[in-house]
UniProtKB/TrEMBL annotation:
Keywords: Cell membrane, Membrane, Protein transport, Translocation, Transmembrane, Transmembrane helix, Transport
Entry protein name: Protein-export membrane protein SecF
UniProt record similarity statement: Belongs to the SecD/SecF family. SecF subfamily.
InterPro entries: SecD/SecF_arch_bac, SecD/SecF_bac, SecD/SecF_CS, SecD_SecF_C, SecD_SecF_C_bact, SecF_bac
Quaternary structure (record): Forms a complex with SecD. Part of the essential Sec protein translocation apparatus which comprises SecA, SecYEG and auxiliary proteins SecDF. Other proteins may also be involved.
Localization (cell): Cell membrane
Membrane topology, as annotated: Multi-pass membrane protein
The keyword Isomerase appears for this protein: no
Gene: secF
Ranges where the Protein export membrane protein SecD/SecF C-terminal domain occurs: 146-330
Length: 353
């Protein structure tokens, strides 16, 4: 929901309108009371710190890759009253090392235990199945306790690598198309700022996964691509308002380009907040359903990466893309001349006053 345009005093960012109003009043009226562009150096520093921490974590800690990337053997059996720690101990006694993951997925009678380990030999698979059967007596589909109730499958690490390679190619193509469209629809400065914001989203989301230790699966990689669309949508909405405010600005002396851009961000700020909240709520519900009803799986992976991506996308759209746009625009001679004329007019007005 976009807010109505409201007049801003000539001093713009230095004395924002509505600065004495409450926080919610300033958010909803969009009068330019928040000096986002005026404080862009602080946001640049914050952005650099976030990127540095994320890159350091990626380089030093790395990622917790799932079996689809590392390769290995996956065993499944009906859960019943099985405890994950007990299953882990039984498997460790047979294979000589702790399994990569042990998790219970599904709900009700459909609950199963999934065990992911390194690549096991045929003899190790047989021994592990027998040990699990002796300990837990899983019941097969026929209703009888049988070792056949325990299934196994091998996962090749090349499959996860192929998914990642195709995702990176898709990401590169997406970036080129986005740059071309925004440069054609708006201008190259906006296209550059939007691409930088998208790279920030990718690095930050990947960094959060590295820091927290979330498991990276093919679903995570696919989900990472989906969040870029959300971030781009939010950025384009802000840019559209900025373009509307700055159209023909070279012929005016009421406000500078930076002040008009800051007004545009303020006028769309509440919309960005609403979009973020509305986007996160169903994802929270999806996480709850995935964990408590269906069990941890693909839905959980998709929901997690999209929740992280939506938050980072909103930050980059508001606090990075538009401030960076202003920095790029202020390098042009036309904007420099217009800014000088605005400041000169204000000095004359103050002198007369």
């Amino acid at each position: 929901m976009s807010t109505p345009d409201t007049a801003v005093p000539d001093k713009g960012a230095s004395t924002p309108a509505g600065s004495g109003d409450s926080l919610f009043t300033r958010l909803y009226t969009g009068t330019g009371a928040f000096g986002i562009v005026a404080n862009r150096r602080k946001f640049y520093i914050l952005t650099l710190v976030i990127v540095a921490v994320c890159l350091a974590s990626i380089l030093l800690r790395g990622f917790s890759f799932g079996i689809d990337f590392t390769g290995g053997t996956k065993l499944t059996m009906p859960a019943g009253d099985v405890d994950e720690d007990q299953v882990s101990m039984v498997v460790e006694e047979v294979v000589g090392e702790e399994p990569q993951t042990v998790q219970i997925v599904g709900a009700g009678n459909a609950r199963i235990v999934e065990v992911e380990t390194r690549f096991l030999t045929t003899d190790e698979i047989v021994d592990t199945k027998n040990a699990l059967f002796e300990e837990f007596q899983p019941v097969s589909a026929s209703g009888e306790a049988s070792v056949e109730a325990i299934g196994d499958s091998a996962r090749s690490e090349s499959w996860g690598g192929q998914v990642t390679e195709k995702a990176l190619i898709a990401l590169a193509v997406f970036m080129v198309i986005v740059f071309g469209y925004i440069a054609f629809r708006f201008e190259w400065q906006m296209a550059t700022a939007a691409i930088v914001a998208l790279f920030f989203d990718v690095i930050t989301t990947a960094g959060v996964y590295s820091l927290v230790g979330f498991e990276v699966t093919p679903a995570t990689v696919i989900g990472l691509l989906t969040i870029l669309g959300f971030s781009l949508y939010d950025t384009v909405i802000v840019f559209d308002k900025v373009e509307e405010n700055t159209r023909g600005i070279a012929n005016t002396t009421s406000r500078t380009y930076a002040e008009e851009a800051n007004l545009g961000v303020n006028q769309t700020l509440m919309r960005s907040i609403h979009t973020t909240v509305i986007g996160i709520l169903p994802l929270l519900a999806l996480v709850i359903i995935a964990v408590w009803i269906l069990g941890v799986g693909t839905l959980m992976d998709l929901a997690l990466v999209q929740m992280v991506g939506i938050v980072t996308g909103t930050f980059s759209s508001v606090f990075l893309a538009t401030p960076l746009l202003v920095t790029l625009k202020e390098r042009s001679p036309e904007i420099k001349r217009q800014t000088a004329k605005v400041l000169a007019r204000r000095e004359k007005a103050e002198a007369r006053a």
